[in-house]
Amino acid sequence: MGVITSLTSLDDALKRLLEGLETAPVLDEPIDEALGRISAGLTAPGPLPVGAVAMIDGWAVRSLDIVGASSYSPAFLAEPPVWVETGQPLPEGCDSLVEPQSLNRESGIFQAVAEARPGQGVRRAGDEIAAKSLVIKPGQRIRPLDLLIATRLGLRSLSVRTPRLQLVNMASASGQSSTAQYIAYLAEQAGAAVTRTDSDARTAPAIASVLNASEADLIVTVGGTGTGKTDATIDALQSAGVAITHGIAMIPGRTAAIGYLRSVPLIALPGMLEDALAAWWTLALPVLDRLTMRQRPTTARPIARKIASAPGVADIVLLGSEEEAWMPLSVGELPLQALANADAWMLVPGNSEGFPAGALCPAYPLG
């Protein structure tokens, strides 16, 4: 069992995890496998469209040839116009499209009965995306729209940073692994490639045998961090050579631990869902952010009622969206009902006693 003799502040734990941590290497991911990955950035290799294309079905003309044309004073065209349909390139020398009713044809001669402005019905080269422009920001999660743009640009792959996360689930007496399953899902949502391993037993040799720092950028264990008789994770990590910091000054998540296995950061999450989730949000996600250069957005709103917190310990607060304010749903605990109703979460730092009603508080949206 792991005995907690003192608590480390969340700030100090994060500093130890992030200090000297480099970003994950850039890899080329096939477009059909890149959805949800974290982009390493994309600069358009060329303009889109590459040349002027039709935005409507119509006759391609040169606008200068039909200046002032009207039904009373038609403009006769020296050359027959070319019919172009939506998405097709414009013929050389043409800069506008006119609809069928704008041209008449008599005895094989075309005459325009309406003028056209330059670029009418046309999307010029680079109007959608300029060459060398930033299309996908580094650290941005790749969306279906990004895949469409990349395909339109003629790309077959995208540059991504995909941290390799080894998730080690500790065997429990009940055999349940719902917490590990949920953490695996959250890790994939954060852009990680997850390899899950289940320890056969909660013994130090069994746990140490499944740790694999050579094929991971981050190791996360789930379960066995408490002081129970079968909680062997901390002892196992120490036996494997991990310099463990056990006990983080936050609620929930107090029995979480952090360390490094050789050069790989390691986070030991408690087995209880609310403790694991708190440690995942506050410890694991910042590590993944550093590895991928991701910047998670926050939304700042005034809180609808006072949040009280004991100094010295960071509190996780679940928030519901109420008009233009955040309504605190729970402080220092994450019951399932509150989680189901929450729209965001925020952290009350350990050096704070809370916030008064009306204070503007940034929060991380849940989704």
From TrEMBL:
Taxonomic superkingdom: Bacteria
All copies of domain MoaB/Mog, residue ranges: 156-290
Pathway: Cofactor biosynthesis; molybdopterin biosynthesis
Catalytic activity reported: adenylyl-molybdopterin + molybdate = Mo-molybdopterin + AMP + H(+)
Cofactor: Mg(2+)
GO biological process, one term: Mo-molybdopterin cofactor biosynthetic process
Group of enzyme by EC: transferase
Database matches in PANTHER family: GEPHYRIN, MOLYBDOPTERIN BIOSYNTHESIS PROTEIN
Family: Belongs to the MoeA family.
Protein name from the UniProt record: Molybdopterin molybdenumtransferase
Organism, scientific name: Afipia felis (Cat scratch disease bacillus)
Classification of source organism: Bacteria, Pseudomonadati, Pseudomonadota, Alphaproteobacteria, Hyphomicrobiales
